[in-house]
């Protein structure tokens, strides 16, 4: 399967939510989006990105992990227009979900990063290290939380930084690629 072809049929953030999200889902995504606050240094880093970075995000509008992470990507894309995120619904694209399983299970969000010419650069998902650390503290103890959590500070800021680290890693892979450096004469 050519995942870059799937990227090309993916939806913008707004179109994805409009097509797959209920009013409740859209409201949760809007609430989390409003809570994301990138620091000046994070914005400066994003503004330094020069290579096109298409990114395919497999997600579900209903998914709590997606609610808590995908709005972060939109903030990145606004600050760094070279980041072009497209979204696919996990259930509608079961073939992509099968290919992007993590630890033998269907997980979202999963992001696949590409070069401008469609070469796969990296995959990352479904939760960041900061999120897993917080979950271990919550769930390894005597009780387990339930329900969807909308952005907790400082966890939201930590998750945003985890994702930014991955976007940065991919940007530097793209910038240092001999193949792309030859194309761009840099």
Give a written overview of the molecule.
It is globular and about 50 Å long. Helices cover 51% and strands 13% of the residues. The chain starts with a helix and ends with a helix. The longest helix has 22 residues, at 155-176. It has helices spanning 3-8, 13-20, 23-35, 40-47, 64-67, 70-79, 94-99, 129-139, 155-176, 178-184; strands at 53-59, 83-89, 110-114, 120-125. With 186 residues, the protein is α+β, with helices and mostly antiparallel strands. It is built from ten helices and four strands; from the N terminus they run H-H-H-H-E-H-H-E-H-E-E-H-H-H. A hairpin with a 5-residue loop joins strand 3 (110-114) and strand 4. Mean pLDDT is 92; it is low at 146-152. It has one domain: Glutaredoxin (3-Layer(aba) Sandwich).
CATH superfamily: Glutaredoxin
Radius of gyration: 16 Å
Number of strands: 4
- Give the DSSP E fraction (strand runs of 2 or more residues): 5-15%
Secondary structure: helix percent: 40-55%
CATH class: Alpha Beta
Distance between the termini: 32 Å
| Helix count, DSSP H or I runs of 4 or more residues | 10
Instruction: Classify the fold: give the CATH topology.
Output: Glutaredoxin
Based on secondary structure, the structural category is: alpha+beta
Number of folding domains? 1
Task: Characterize the main sheet.
Answer: 4 strands, mixed
Global shape:
globular
Estimate the mean pLDDT confidence.
Answer: 92
Low-confidence stretches: 146-152
CATH architecture: 3-Layer(aba) Sandwich
């Amino acid at each position: 399967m050519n995942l870059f072809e799937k990227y090309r049929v993916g939806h913008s953030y707004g179109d994805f939510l409009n097509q797959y999200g209920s009013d409740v889902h859209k409201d949760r995504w809007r609430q989390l989006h409003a809570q994301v606050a990138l620091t000046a240094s994070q914005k400066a880093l994003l503004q330094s990105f020069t290579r096109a970075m298409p990114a395919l995000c497999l997600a579900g509008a209903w998914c709590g992990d997606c609610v808590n992470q995908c709005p972060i990507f939109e903030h990145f894309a606004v600050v760094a227009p070279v980041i072009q995120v497209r979204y696919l619904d996990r259930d509608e694209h079961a073939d992509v979900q099968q290919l992007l399983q993590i630890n033998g299970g269907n997980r979202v969000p999963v992001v696949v990063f590409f070069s401008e010419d469609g070469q796969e650069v990296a995959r990352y998902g479904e939760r960041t290290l900061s999120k897993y650390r917080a979950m271990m503290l919550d769930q390894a103890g005597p009780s387990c939380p339930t329900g969807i959590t909308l952005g907790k500070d400082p966890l939201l800021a930590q998750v945003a930084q985890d994702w930014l680290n991955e976007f940065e890693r991919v940007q530097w892979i793209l910038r240092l690629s001999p193949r792309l450096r030859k194309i761009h004469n840099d």
